[in-house]
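Wed. Picked up where I left off yesterday with YbbR-like domain-containing protein. The coffee machine is broken again, so keeping this brief.
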Amino acid sequence: MERLSHDYKNIRNFLFGFLNKDFLIFLFFLALSAIFWLMMALNETYEREITVPMSLTNVPKNVVLTTEMDSTVKVTVRDKGFTLVTYMYSRRIRPVRINFGAYANKQTGYGLVPTADIQKFVYQQLMGSSKIVSVNPDKLDFYFNFGASKTVPVRMDGSVTPGKSYYLASMRFWPDKVTVYASKKMLDSIRYVKTEPIRIVNFEDTVIREVPIARMQGVKCVPSTVRIGLYPDILTEERVSVPIRAINLPEGKVLRTFPSHVSVKFIVGASMFRTVKADQFVVVVDYNEVTKQTSDKCELHLVKSPYMVRNAQLEINQVDYLVEQQ
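Structure written out below (tokens, as returned):
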């Protein structure tokens, strides 16, 4: 205790010594000059942007807001610095409550709060010396209806590109349909809704994403977001043997080819290969072409292939043939 008391006396003597008294006096006048400078600065006129909360009140229970009004406006105010500091750091600026019935047009399903009314509501909370320079946005609007709706499918907007040697085998949405609320005219024109644009590249495994529904003015979607599932599959090259058919043969004629079958190569997803059958391909020889040529070989044409295969090609494009009379 005696040592602590001794240390305390030494520190006190140091702080209040002759040399340090000058330093304390310097700090006092520095603080005093800073206060005077601040008061002079705050006495100047400035412009500052103030955020004012907005809310729509007294909305009837049978009304559905299909596009809601902006929840804030940014008001640029000109006044003395003292007043602007009060607006920015106190609770003087309170949320503005806008009465639904005063601005809603029930025939059109549209409501508009003009700039003049926004300024009037804000001026009610400002001091007399303050002047509003600008308002952003310069108007507040909203759309509504009385529950008219329909259910429409969801479609993806954007691009998805699987990795090399993969393709997009399937795509799913949860839910795959949403309920849209809008005016009757708009409901009649809406056949589906799109997601916000997405871009996913170089994926080789299942991708599940939550994606918002693209916004449309005057339209409300429930739900407003959906989950999308992308299912890639690895590509493999395969072959099947397909019989060659003759077309445009006149009665009594028979066209034989050598060989009678041709190999068709194609690319398909590994999981889909077992569903591919030879009878889903059609390879033909056109008798009308044969009669117009002098070659001893005829041209083959692949005229049909199943939807799940890609780049279907004949391994040979010409074969020997013989036309016989029945």
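Quick read: Helices lie at 2-15, 18-42, 81-89, 100-103, 115-123, 184-189, 287-292.
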